[in-house]
Design goal:
Blueprint lengths: L19 E4 L3 E5 L12 E8 L4 H4 L5 H11 L5 E7 L3 E9 L3 H12 L10 H12 L8 E8 L8 H21 L3 E6 L6 H10 L3 E4 L6 H13 L2 E2 L6 E4 L3 E9 L8 E3 L15 E5 L3 E7 L4 E6 L6 E6 L1 E9 L8 E9 L2 E2 L3 H5 L2 E7 L5 E6 L1 E2 L5 E5 L5 E10 L4 E11 L42 H43 L13
Parallel strand pairs: 3-4, 3-6, 6-7, 7-8
Antiparallel strand pairs: 1-2, 2-25, 4-5, 9-16, 10-15, 11-14, 11-16, 12-15, 13-14, 17-18, 18-19, 18-23, 20-21, 20-24, 22-23, 24-25
Helix pairs in contact: 2-3, 2-7, 4-5
Length: 521
């Protein structure tokens, strides 16, 4: 567990809570963590909801969700509180919300994860969220930051299809409003594609949390690492080729080293060059070993370059230090395009570190991870008189962005990570161009002689659009067709009437002819 003295936040470092920001009607950005150090954030209240249904035996056969949860618990501070809840048909707390104020409480929380089984019959996500709300509904009023970490591999299921559908709907209609009311963020994790991803995604998005699909069980600890970074924003050291530089201001370092396989053995190589592993015994070193990662905490590490040996990439190095990298965000409201302004500076003992020697040879970059997982790096060359590094960034796509401010010199390195969600509104459909209209104006009219009430300009007649013109033409064509058909019918009837008349007249004429002949002699 990371332990350190917590100090009151000065008035000049007032926290800005994550919130939705609408900028000029074009872009919605949700920034997480305006002051990005764990000390300055509100204490965290966390409820971990762990699925214990029978299907977890197939989706997490090595039960790697347990060490992943332990990683997160171990990284929490002494002011943070935690509860572990198991759920299947129902939800029941293994530990209630308890402050991790000492090693005893931390060990109790770690042991609670070992009691999670995979023997449950069903997956009652409704009951799990209800229990989480019950445990956290007072946290916001106590000036604590409440979050839920929800892990599941299945659908909402209580053994009855109709009842399951009803409870699923109640999550949207009843539980989500309660989560929003109590400012509870939900970080949801789906174990398989068969999970109700739409439900888990919407719960996370609505509460301004995060959703993740753990494609395999060996990446769960990486998901928990990201949750820790998003909620606590710790000071970090950048790693390049698994190397990092320790300076004299660092009091403690916690390294998360990923393994190639279950049999991999992680080694550390300090500046002295003598490598060591988990078998090394020292009061200054704590080494936690799992199948997918190792977590090593070292008190007062030696100054110089360290290296992680026989490890996969994407490792982490969290630090407790006297010199911290601070980051602040604002929006450029004068720009025609939505623009994020990022300022970074160093602080020592809650005071701005204005040492020119510290930043003289400092190289600072902004590393952006786009929603499609592509990376982009920008150099930060603008430094003002207060020693603030300033960069402007214009996101241009929908989705969740990851970002890191990385400061490096030969003997000093720092990294600060944050994330934001960007949503662009739908673009309006183009309106069809109006058809040209010949408008004639009688310029000879004497408008000055009209009454004042009638001297106002007459509204222009709305021009007929192309679609309306085509419709009129179609109506005219239809009318002409009907007219032609009617005329043909009338002509046909008239002609037939005339022929019938002639025929009847012809039959009457021969009968009268004998009376007209003269008598025979």
């Amino acid at each position: 567990m990371i332990t350190e003295q917590r100090q009151a936040v000065p008035a000049t470092l007032t926290l800005l809570h994550p919130q939705r920001l609408l900028f000029a009607g074009f872009m919605l950005l949700v920034l997480f963590g305006q002051a990005l150090h764990a000390e300055d954030k509100l204490p965290l209240d966390t409820v971990i909801l762990m699925d214990s249904s029978g299907s977890m035996k197939q989706t997490d056969p090595r039960q790697l969700r347990k060490p992943a949860a332990k990683l997160f618990i171990s990284l929490l501070g002494q002011q943070d509180r935690l509860s572990v809840v198991s759920f299947s048909a129902k939800a029941w707390p293994i530990t209630f919300l308890t402050q991790l104020k000492n090693e005893k409480q931390t060990q109790k929380a770690l042991r609670a994860t070992d009691r999670i089984s995979h023997k449950g019959m069903y997956t009652n996500i409704h009951a799990a969220l209800s229990k989480g709300i019950e445990l956290l509904k007072q946290s916001d009023q106590l000036e604590r930051d409440p979050i839920i970490i929800l892990m599941s591999d299945g659908q909402m299921d209580v053994g009855n299809t109709e009842r399951s559908a009803e409870l699923r709907q109640q999550i949207f209609e009843t539980l989500l409003p309660q989560l929003i009311e109590h400012n509870i963020k939900v970080y949801s994790i789906a174990f398989t594609q068969a999970s109700d991803q739409q439900l888990l995604q919407e719960i996370a998005d609505t509460t301004e949390g995060r959703y993740a699909l753990a494609a395999s069980d060996d990446v769960l600890h990486k998901v928990f690492s990201k949750i820790f970074e998003q909620t606590k924003q710790p000071d970090m050291l950048p790693l390049h080729e698994n190397k990092f530089v320790v300076d004299a201001s660092i009091n403690e370092i916690t390294i998360i080293a990923n393994k190639f396989s279950d049999t991999s053995q992680i080694y550390l190589q300090p500046p002295t060059g003598e490598k060591f592993n988990s078998t090394f015994k020292s009061a200054k070193v704590k080494w936690f070993v799992s199948n997918s990662f190792d977590m090593i905490t070292i008190q007062k590490p030696a100054e110089g370059e360290w290296k992680i040996l026989f490890s996969d990439d994407d490792n982490r190095a969290y630090i407790i230090t006297d010199i911290k990298l601070r980051t602040n965000f604002s929006f450029n409201t004068e720009s025609d395009v939505p623009e994020l302004i990022i300022k970074s500076w160093f602080e020592q003992n809650e005071k701005t570190e204005d040492s020119k020697d510290l930043i003289k040879n400092m190289k600072v970059v902004l590393e952006i991870e786009h929603p499609d997982d592509t990376l982009e790096t920008f150099k930060v060359n603008n430094v003002n008189e207060q020693g603030e590094f300033i960069i402007h960034y214009k996101p241009d796509a929908n989705g969740i962005y990851g970002a890191s401010i990385i400061a490096t010199s030969r003997t000093f390195q720092r990294q600060q990570t944050f994330s934001f969600k960007n949503t662009l509104p739908d673009r309006p459909k183009p309106t069809p161009a109006p058809a040209p209209v010949d408008v004639s104006v009688d310029v000879s009219a004497d408008v000055s002689s009209q009454p004042a009430a009638q001297s106002q300009p007459t509204p222009e007649t709305e021009p007929t659009t192309t679609d309306e013109t085509e419709k009129d033409e179609n109506d005219l064509t239809t009318t002409l067709i009907y007219f032609g058909v009617a005329n043909v019918v009338l002509i046909f009837l008239g002609l037939n009437g005339f022929l019938i008349y002639r025929h009847l007249k012809h039959r009457k004429t021969p009968a009268a002819e004998p009376k007209a002949q003269p008598p025979e002699a």
